[in-house]
Amino acid sequence: MNPANSRMLPRPLRITGRFLACFLALHGFAALAEPSWRAIESPPGRSIEVDAKSIEREAQGTLVATSRLVLAREISDARTSAPYRFIQTTSRYDCDKRTSVTLKRLFLKADQTLLREDELRESGMLPVRNGTLEERVLRELCHTLMPERAPDPPPTGQDAGRTNPAETTNTNTAEATNAANATNTTKTGSTANRTATNPANTANTTNAATSAAGRASTVSGRPLREASLREQLDAIKAIAAARLGDAPAQTVPLRMPASGTAHAPATASSAPAASAASPAILPAPLPSAAAPATVPSPPATASLCATGQRQSPIDIRNGIVVDLEPITFEYLPSLFSILDTGDSVEARVTGNRLRLLGKTYTLERIRFSRPAEERLAGRVFVMGAHLEHIAEDGERLILAILLEKGEANALVQTLWNYLPLEREREVRPPTATIDPNTLLPAQRGYHTYLGSLTRPPCTEDVTWIVLKTPVSISPEQEAIFARLYPKNARPIQPTHGRRIKSSRD
Description:
Elements: H1 3-6, H2 11-33, E1 37-41, E2 46-51, E3 56-57, E4 62-76, E5 83-94, E6 99-108, E7 114-117, E8 126-127, H3 133-145, H4 165-188, H5 199-216, E9 218-219, E10 222-223, H6 226-243, H7 303-307, E11 315-316, E12 320-322, E13 328-330, E14 334-340, E15 345-349, E16 353-356, E17 359-369, E18 375-376, E19 383-391, E20 396-405, H8 410-417, E21 426-427, E22 433-434, E23 446-452, E24 460-467, E25 471-473, H9 475-484, E26 501-503
Parallel strand pairs: 11-18, 12-26, 20-24, 20-25
Antiparallel strand pairs: 1-2, 2-4, 3-4, 4-5, 5-6, 6-7, 6-8, 9-10, 13-16, 14-15, 14-21, 14-22, 15-17, 16-17, 17-19, 19-20, 23-24, 23-26
């Protein structure tokens, strides 16, 4: 309505109109602030949702988003004993490296009011494992929901005459490459057998490299990092120094952009230079006896394994003796698959559960180690079995069984009967079954503490249940595993003052 016409309305109507306008404006802003949950996975008893409005792309190529796990019914929180139904998580994701880190985790009641917030320690980005719900969230965010950045508009007016720093750097890279080639040609004195550098061709090559580098400098809307350009310049300088005889014999392979040109060190029978349209790699020289072996740096994702304060396994001693709640086992004979993972042998089953403190944990796999990773007051056992469980809310529980030499174990023998012929090959017997109950001792007193996975990414906040009474396996069964993995147990980790509780029995 025209403001001039609004003055013609009676005063009560003008006031009412302004009130309605303010109400609608506030209501609209509230609607914008509300999350927009989108279901991306609905396994039995739960669903995974992502807030499409929460997705934010960061400058370094990562993105931050909020997701939540919605349970079909409320379950009891082990820390507060109060029920909750939602677990809402804000995480940072790297789509290229397939890594993530949790920034915030909230436990919400059925009415979506806050029950508690997890205290998360600072850690680096960790790899997202295939087949997990987190991997499904990552795939949905990176390939479906992530907002795409609009291409930059073409330069106009005064901007058209300005120089793009990325293009300037790439031009300098191409010029440095040409300078290195020219130096090498002069050094070897074989310019008659090589193609002379034509200024016009050099300009064309530089312009082509600049144009292609400019195209390569934006991948998925992200600018090429300056660090990568500096590494290329440093590598080119190293190549030039090597051709002048000033660099050590060992070189680092260099991968140039698609439009770049890279040359192998000059020899008497040098091949012609690779075309500018094809990528080239400088091969590293073969190692010699005098050259020290290169030790690869540990991956950044292993940082928690080295710096975590609640790592497993530990030497269990001096526990607080109390009346712990008995564990309710709901194990039954089940079909299984067996896999040699390259660092252990594990069996995967379905349909088996245990209950503790009002929460149900589903058995995912049985994994073996030699010797047992846990110790009881310094005592070492010949082997160990970890029964890895997970609850609906993602909380993990590992039941540790200590194995000693004695009578043969029926479950272990069945697994050994179906050992794969090769590593990373899974065997699924069509009719054979295993009963996890046969791995349990008659006396089921236990120790419990908070720890971690014993293999990367060494995720913490895992509830550990270590049964006090060992179970026997035959010397022949132990010898079979020893042929595959003589020693695959992780070393004992510091307790860092963690609380250990032990049952009376």
